[in-house]
Amino acid sequence: MFSTAEVGIDLGTANILIYTKSKGIVLNEPSVVAIDVNTKQVVAVGTEAKEMVGKTPQNIIPIRPLKDGVIADYDVTSQMLKAFLKKVSKQIGMSMRKPVVVVCTPSGSTTVERRAIHNAVSSYGAKQVHLIEEPIAAAIGADLPVDEPVANVVVDIGGGTSEVGIISFGGVVSCNSVRVGGDKMDEEIIHHIRKNYNILIGERTAENIKMEIGYAHQNHKEETMEIRGRDMVTGLPKTITITSKEVYLALKESLEQVLGAIRTTLENCPPELSGDIVDHGIVLTGGGALLQGMQEWLSHELIVPVHLAPNPLESVAIGTGRSLKMIHKLQKATK
Ligand code: ADP
Ligand code: MG
């Protein structure tokens, strides 16, 4: 029998991933688009556009249209989405096979924004377009038994937001979202270095520092890293060495906010499901879950088991693609 192609799109604030049932992940690129302000044309998308951040001439601006977890500019978001679909459409046979597409949108998105996303995907030849909530997609992608009557807790730490959701019986029982994620951590690192060393560093450098020597807890073996930036007094380039302990202090507040969001969600959990959490624990996903020591720190603070999803950066995309089977059930549950 002819089977319809099934496509899942994770429209994340930092990264966009496209998954197909037959080929797995076919696209994984930063959610960045570079626009020429004079012509309003898209000059580059994804990795190519991210490389331009902080290095472009004045007429070309790299934009992250989803940066703070909301769709700041849905026109640019649609353009970016179309550019990515164009990139993979041959590979996934978008127009030939008329696929069914499921898109996972940031939870803060409004009806208008959702419609814009829906339209952008439809105009690319999709037969049907469904939108899915992020915690459900993350839980499916992390292989949790979402349609069973047990509490599945997922914590998705992304770029612009961190989302905590408790899913049971195919629906969201309780959820919480904070506008704190990897981006905020990068900003705190930039701020720390400016304040303590009078040196200005870019977003990319800050993200590298976080990934290399960032830790979620203070008790770790100290590491150091050499970094380069611009001396704000002389205006000249300067190299300094920073330590993982000071980076930890810069990240501390953001981490506390993520922890607070998890605590609140667990407190709002119906008592019948609380017991499950003590047994099964919670699952971490999203790029922020990869911060060193995150799993141990959260487990220590929350006194429940904390697991890392098999592919934290890919779970939402995989879950979105796989959700199709459940979509009708989910639509009923979220109505
Ligand atoms: P979104 O779903 O919002 O697009 P992702 O789940 O793709 O976000 O995660 C992106 C965030 O994860 C970025 O802020 C990135 O810096 C961060 N990240 C990725 N890898 C690591 C790592 N190894 N350590 C710490 N943070 C990481
Ligand atoms: Mg995400």
From TrEMBL:
- Organism domain of life: Bacteria
**Cellular component GO terms held in the UniProt record:** cytoplasm
Q: Name one GO molecular function term.
A: ATP binding
What Pfam families is this protein classified in? MreB_Mbl
Among InterPro entries, the record links this protein to: ATPase_NBD, MreB, MreB_MamK-like
Q: Which UniProt keywords apply?
A: ATP-binding, Cell shape, Cytoplasm, Nucleotide-binding
User: What Gene3D superfamilies does UniProt report for this protein, alphabetically?
Assistant: 3.30.420.40
Task: Name its cellular compartments.
Answer: Cytoplasm
Primary localization: cytoplasm
> So which residues are the signal peptide here?
none
GO biological-process terms attached to the record:
cell morphogenesis; regulation of cell shape
Residues the record lists as binding ATP: 13-15, 159-161, 207-210, 287-290
Q: What's this chain's function?
A: Forms membrane-associated dynamic filaments that are essential for cell shape determination. Acts by regulating cell wall synthesis and cell elongation, and thus cell shape. A feedback loop between cell geometry and MreB localization may maintain elongated cell shape by targeting cell wall growth to regions of negative cell wall curvature.
Q: How does it assemble?
A: Forms polymers.
Question: Which protein family is it in?
Answer: Belongs to the FtsA/MreB family.
HAMAP family in alphabetical order: MreB (MF_02207)
Protein's name in the database:
Cell shape-determining protein MreB
Q: Which organism is it from?
A: Virgibacillus dokdonensis
